[in-house]
Amino acid sequence: MDVGRGRDRHVGRGAPVRVLVTGAGGQLGCDLLDAFADDEVTGRTHAELDVADEAAVVDAVTGLAPDLVVNAAAWTDVDGCEGDPLRAHAVNALGPWWLARACRLVGATLVTVSTEHVFSGPPPHESDGTPRGWTEFDPVAPANVYGRTKAAGEELVRRTLPEHHIVRTSWVTGARGRNFVTAILGAARTRDHLEVVDDEVGAPTSTRDLSVAIRELAVSGRFGTWHRTGAGTVSRLEQARAIVALAGLDVEVRPISAAELTRPAARPSWSVLDATHATAAGLTPLPHWRDGLVRLLEELGELADPASSSAS
Ligand SMILES: NC(=O)c1ccc[n+]([C@@H]2O[C@H](COP(=O)([O-])OP(=O)(O)OC[C@H]3O[C@@H](n4cnc5c(N)ncnc54)[C@H](OP(=O)(O)O)[C@@H]3O)[C@@H](O)[C@H]2O)c1
Q1: What are the sequence ranges of the domains in the chain?
Q2: Cβ–Cβ < 8 Å for 120, 258
Q3: Fold entry, domain 18-178+206-229+267-286
Q4: What spacing in Å lies between the alpha carbon of 310 and ligand 1's midpoint?
Q5: Predicted TM-score of the model (pTM)
Q6: What pLDDT digit, counting tens, does each position of 260-305 carry?
Q7: 38-43: long-range contacts at Cβ-Cβ below 8 A with a sequence spacing of 24 or more?
Q8: Is 146 a known active-site residue?
Q9: Catalytic member of 146, 226, 270, 289
């Protein structure tokens, strides 16, 4: 047993675990509780545990003494973060750090969820000029406060707790939260046409699928940084058109460019995370984003033709 550690029981392959999920009221947090339902799982919402409060984090983690902490808490309002970098840093950088330090006290493993916003700029290329996704080994280059604070949170965890899994994901959508899918559905019902950017490309990720992938990673004992997103890539425009079509809504979706939107924070134009490292390491690839979208619309009761769920 390492000196200074309460226990040494990091989660190993297939081990049943006592789990603490932070940010349990968020769209990912809710589905994590389901994914870990066969374990001994405790969720803490923002109201129950503020991850930016170091003393509260120590109390919660030492009180529960989990084998595994999964941090789904974050301030995800990208434009809000731009206007309040101090708060963004406290939640997105210090929060994971306090959790990592508390995990060290009880010998727990930490999963913390991060984002493709740690990258920016044009896509990297293969030697033949084909664009490729960002890998775990590409240098981070965030272009907004949200991405900067998430990258800082990653680095603080790496420096603090070897037994960590940093899970970068992108374009997250779940049934219990506000996201691109619910925003498009809402707008499509109140407007005669929608305008959606066609120059932002990424990989939509179902919180159901991501939660299963996070549990697989946590019990694998494979520590480090991992990219875990839905398979396939799509522009925001194509994603919006797929949402509208699958929901059976009759509304035109017109392309615009990101430059036409006035938003406080810059968005990555290329939000594609490469899956090679995870797949080569034996982790199960996530289902295609469209499959996740069909299941999400079904869960929301918004799928126009339920037969399409088996055809996807
Ligand atoms: N959404 C995306 O497209 C996306 C893309 C890539 C990565 N991610 C990452 O995925 C993870 C989950 O995101 P999500 O989509 O599930 O976001 P979400 O629905 O906004 O959930 C985040 C949760 O964290 C809570 N929270 C905020 N500040 C907190 C604090 N100081 N202490 C404890 N909880 C706090 C929020 O509670 P309140 O709402 O009550 O404040 C909310 O319940 C995050 O790490 C995020 O950075 C998200």
Answers
A1: 18-178+206-229+267-286
A2: no
A3: Rossmann fold (3.40.50)
A4: 31
A5: 0.94
A6: 998 999 999 999 999 999 999 999 999 999 999 999 999 999 999 7
A7: 40/16, 42/18, 42/66
A8: yes
A9: 146
